[in-house]
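To start, one record:
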Amino acid sequence: MDTELLLRIALAGGLGALIGLERQLRAKEAGLRTHILVCIGSAMFMIVSKYGFADLLANGHNIALDPSRISAQVVSGIGFLGAGTIMLNKQMVRGLTTAAGLWVTAAIGLIVGSGMYAIGIFGTLMTLVVLEGIRQLSNRLIGQRYMIMLSLAPAGIDLVMQTLRKRHIRVIRSSVARNDDENKDCKMTLEVMMHARYKPAEIYSQLLAIEGMHKIDIR
């Protein structure tokens, strides 16, 4: 029994590593070590939930065993860790996929800890398909989401939008803010959220060539 439980923890760590490696390669907020720890911890919680009170039951204590109680706390508790990977920057939310990945990784740990190895392995493969395969499909169909911040003269704003349209870039949202109301040659800050099928760095030189352009920041 003890050997099998050790194997469950090792398998959970290995499956968590597969998901964490994909996140690490994408330079996401939670990477390899985080996913391994989440999966191992979930497996151990499930093991103690199922087998940790066998001595009390064997001694005839008048208690009722509910193996789902600890695992249920893992499901709710992992939300706090996932929330730490979500960031709001300039009204643009990042980290939701990583948070969902941590949530799924916790589920895989619980499943492996309960002894359902095939389901845990299949769940890991499906997670990797979603994280990598669906990502590539989405990028080909609608492109990746980017945020571009430009500091430029007011006359250049229309030229920026025309350049993006010519390159078939879909603009999701744009906003303009004035930097200096008193200066006639004031600079404007243009924020553009968009979907592009290639990195916007490829149009960096075109945007920089626009008259009155001062600064470009691509995120």
Remarks:
- The mean pLDDT is 79.
- Residues 117-141 form the longest helix (25 residues).
- The chain has two domains: 2-141, 144-218.
- The chain is about 55% helix and 20% strand.
